[in-house]
Amino acid sequence: MGASGWFDSIFYVDGTRADGVFEGKFYIEGKYGTGYDSQGAYYVNGNLAQGQCGDNLWYKDGKLAEGIVIVGDDRYFHEGQPANGTMADGFFYNNGYQGVSCRDDGGIYVYGADYLTQDSIRPLEHPYIFDALKKNPKFKNGLLQKVINSRTTNDPRVIKAAANAITILNLAGIDFTGLNLSGIKIPGADLSMAKLDKVNLSGAFLENVNFNFSKMSNVKLDKSYM
To answer: What's the number of CA atoms in the CB half-sphere (13 Å) around residue 174?
Structure first.
C-alpha cells in the first residue's frame, strides 16, 4: 500500500493520485477539482459549491438550490435559478423574491424592496399583509416595534417606516386602546377611524396625521406636535 498525503502539490491516496472526495475535499488527478462527485454533489476548487458558480447556477452545499435557502440572502430558488412565477408554495416570485414577504421583525418586502420606507404605500393592494397580521402575532408585534423605534431617532427612514407601520396596523383594525405611544414620530400616518381611547401620545410628532373619525377619549396629547 502506497503513501497518502501531499507530495509536490499533488494529493495521493494509497500511492495513487486522488480522484473523488477524500476528507471532505474533491480531487481530480490529485488536485482540487471542480465538478460532480459520484453522489451528484457539485464542487468548486475542491469545496462543496455554495452560491452562484461559474456555470451561472446557484448551489447550497453542492446541490442545486431549491426552495428558500440562504445563499447570500433569503430567496426562493428552483432548479438552481432564482424563482420567477408561482412556485410550489403558492407564492409569486420575481428573481427569487416573494411578491410580498412579511417577517417576524415587522419588516415587509415587496419583490425584495423595503416596503415600509417607501414614500407612498397602498397596503390594501397587498392583502397578504393583513392575512399575515391575523396569523402571525410576531409580525404584528414587530410592526408595533417599528413604531416605537421612532422615539429615539431622527432617521427619516425609521420615521417613515413607523408612519407606514402604524397606518397598516390601523387599516388592519388593530385596537390601540391604552397603549403608551409617547414620543413616537409618525408624520403623515393614516389613523382615521382608529381606536385610540386612553392612548398616551404625549410628546409625539403627529404632523399631518389623519385622525378623522377616530375614537380618542382620554388621549394624552401634551407636548405633542400636530
So the answer is: 23
Q: CA 9 to CA 7: how far, in whole Å?
A: 5
Read off the DSSP letter of residue 156: H
What integer pLDDT is reported at residue 89 of this predicted model? 78
CB of 83 closer than 8 Å to CB of 96: yes
Tell me if 156 sits within 8 A of 174, measured CB to CB: no
What is the per-residue pLDDT across 157-170, written as a single tens digit (0 to 9) for each? 999 999 999 999 99
Contact yes or no for 184/204 (Cβ under 8 A): yes
**Could you give the residue ranges of the DSSP H alpha helices within the chain?**
127-135, 137-148, 156-171
The residue assigned the cell 388593530 is 174
Q: What is the DSSP letter of 141?
A: H
Q: Measured between alpha carbons, how far is 150 from 157 in angstroms, rounded to an integer?
A: 9
Q: Which of 63, 82, 55, 60 is nearest to 71 (CA)?
A: 60
C-alpha cell belonging to residue 144: 408595533
